[in-house]
Amino acid sequence: MQTYIILSKLSPDALKEPVIYREMAARVSKKIKDECPEVHWKQSFAVLGRFDVVDVVESDNPKQVEKAAMIIRAFGNSTTETLFATPWHEFLDML
After folding, report:
1. Do 62 and 6 meet the contact criterion of CB atoms below 8 Å apart?
2. Is the pLDDT score of 60 beyond 80?
3. 75 has pLDDT over 90
4. Does residue 76 register a pLDDT over 90?
5. Which CATH number goes with the domain that contains 86?
6. Which residues contact residue 75 at a Cβ distance below 8 angstroms, ignoring those fewer than 6 apart?
């Protein structure tokens, strides 16, 4: 399986109340599970800085990862950036 990093920045105008974050996260998670069965979520992190959320996912189907990122954008009121990730030891072995 290939590893991908999905970086998300939540729209500041999209969620006026903190409680809405839980509802939005549950809605986005369910939609991705239903529509992107080949994407396996490994971990999610709330982060400080340019992005608000870092998701680590695995999949052998990059189109499913693209779809998951689009669901985050559409239903999570976010912008996303998706990165292909290579484990460091594999990267060093390629050199």
Report:
1. no
2. yes
3. no
4. no
5. 3.30.70.920
6. 24, 27, 28, 31
- List, for residues 12-51, the tens digit of each pLDDT value: 876 677 778 888 889 999 999 999 999 999 999 999 999 9
- Report the alpha-carbon distance of residue 19 to residue 68 in Å, rounded: 23
Q: Which residue has the tokens 């400080």?
A: 48
**Closest C-alpha to 61, from 81, 41, 38:** 38
Judge whether residue 11 has pLDDT over 90.
no
Q: Which residues constitute the domain of residue 31?
A: 2-94
If one counts the domains in the chain, the total is 1
| CB contact at 8 A, 8 and 83 | no
Which among 5, 49, 40, 44 is positioned nearest to 21, based on CA atoms?
44
**Cβ(60)–Cβ(2) under 8 Å?**
yes
